[in-house]
Input
Amino acid sequence: MSLELWGGHEMTLKRVGSSYFDQTIRSGHQHRIGDLTEFANLGIRTLRYPVLWERVAPSGVGQCDFSWSDERLQRIRELGMRPIVGLLHHGSGPPYTDLLDDMFPAKFASFARAVAERYPWIEDWTPINEPLTTARFSCLYGHWYPHQRNETACWTALLNQIDAIRMAMKEIRRVNPNARLIQTEDLGFCHATEPLKAQAEFENERPWLTWDLLFGAVTTHHPLWTRVAGQGLERRVVELTADPCPPDIVGVNHYLSSERFIDHRIDVYPGIRPAADGPEPFINVEAVRVLKNEPLGIGRLLEDAWARYRSPLAITECHNGCTRDEQCRWFSETWETAEHLSATIPIAGVTSWALLGSFDWNHLVTIEAGDYEPGAFDVRSGNSRPTAIAHLLKALAAGQEPELLGLSSLGWWKRDGRQLYPAPESIAATQAPDSYVRHRRKKPEGPILITGKTGTLGQALARACARRCLPHVLTGREDFLLEDAAGAKGFLERKRPSAVINAAGVVEIDEAESNPERCMAANVEGPENLAYACKDYDIPLITFSSDQVFDGYKGTSYVESDPLNPLNVYGRSKVEAERRVLAVGGRALVIRTAAFFSPDDSYNFAVSVLRSLHSRKTLFAAEDEFVSPTYVPELVDSVLDLLIDGETGIWHLANRGRVSWASFAALIAERSDTDARTIVPVHGASMGCRAPRPTDVALTSSRCSLLTSLESAIDRFMHACPRHLFQAS
Output
């Protein structure tokens, strides 16, 4: 069985209270059929796709609306992709049923029959995604509807879903006898301290229950027979065992968070609430954050699944919510693992999940906070912008070796420093990870060359590169002079960088006004020289511009295409630098940003505000000059993501929000719960600045606003800011 690239967008539609949360709508895919062409262009030939009960038959099976599904499924066929149709994805069904309804299986089977009759050509089905996970989150932990918190409800919800799958496949196969069941479930492993050995043994049997029940393997000899049947459910289990519905493909969903560590030492995990679903409280965290050695990994779990079922396998969800380089490393490693195992185990495919990203899974999709993590595409602009993951998938589907910046380094889950909590001396429930090599040695890549060694931005970029294991070199004027074209090109020739990020130059607006010649040399000639050198060596260049390129008269936030009209020397230097760098051509990206604040810089405005608030000294701040403050740690991560994505042109990066300097100071006081009376709003003209300033240069982006809200950024700043920084005199 040859390994295929599969895909799927995050399609969760689940109920919390009386509200339904639909990821298909939130991602914009509901109204963007062109996404399907983008998926096919990646080389995806098998696509997990929704025809969800709640969407199609919200008022009953007799009133199905297939119009949306008709158009999409027809387009999928035209594009040469094979759909795996999902009918319920972390849901509890339409309002006329729920997971604990005795009639849930029969109602669901009736809907499945209607879908099969509408699309008799469809062969692959996942009627219900992750039944056990859904049962746990809905009826054991109470996160989702029907919000129960007891074990009997959990097992009842699970058996209802398994029975629904079994009955649904019977109805589907009456229409299409060749229909296949691809059954998904989250698969991990639970490691534990000695006192929790029995709990870990239970936790390690439980993930298999979805498949065990469908294979008819839950008999009186099953380790969890008493646990499940003893809840008054023996008759249900016996019926399922007598009439099984074995999956044609066992679909394994696996995340970094799937492997857990449970620990009786509650006191060594400050700030983490103990779990309450065991005989006694214990801590349940990601194993990778505790174990000294690596967790088992997807390879070992696939081997276990094959040994248990001897049925073809597929990795039906593969995604990592992290920085772009780590996302690519995770998928690449999973793909290589599956490739290695496919020589001896039938593995049908590896699924790039959340192709369009996902919303609010950090809140278990219980609220609409707006938190988003991209996938192969970033949809925050309203369109689907390909990220580096898309380039990776396209290469893998074509059988090519991917060439992406950062891919040659190990993922954070394999690096020293991943542990956040002290490992116990002995671990009772654990296994050795798989022994084969899962990270193919890739072609070494040159470092990212960062200029601006003494500046806030250059240092922040270097810290981010180090944290993300991106090889880099931070340079200053002692290494080479940007104004010296030959010297700059010679330095690049010696270092052979994979990319250049120019964070050097004059940054003080009043200083630039006093010494325009020095400003133009540093801010214009330097970037231009780098642009020519980077074009000669065909490497990407990122350089930075400013909100000062605008005159402030627009009245609303500026986007990338707005006309330029700087009021000061600094702004004019940035306009000229943009013009020259982009005129050179090549792979150049110009980032316009503004008003930095950071916990790593003791001289920025936000730190000055905190010092004034805590010392109760008066701080004067302009009330008539409006900006979009930018949190530097967030900025540099987005810059590196865009670099890895291969973006070019002009891009505005600033935190979402438009505030005066006085309002910015007041926000910091509010978020730090301090008295704001020492902040004195004044007119900007009274501040004694040498250079003229535009009065309103808030930034937004017509390409995509990548940074979070200003309020969220201030909260992160407050959490990260060391107290000594703002308590200094």
The longest helix spans residues 151-175.
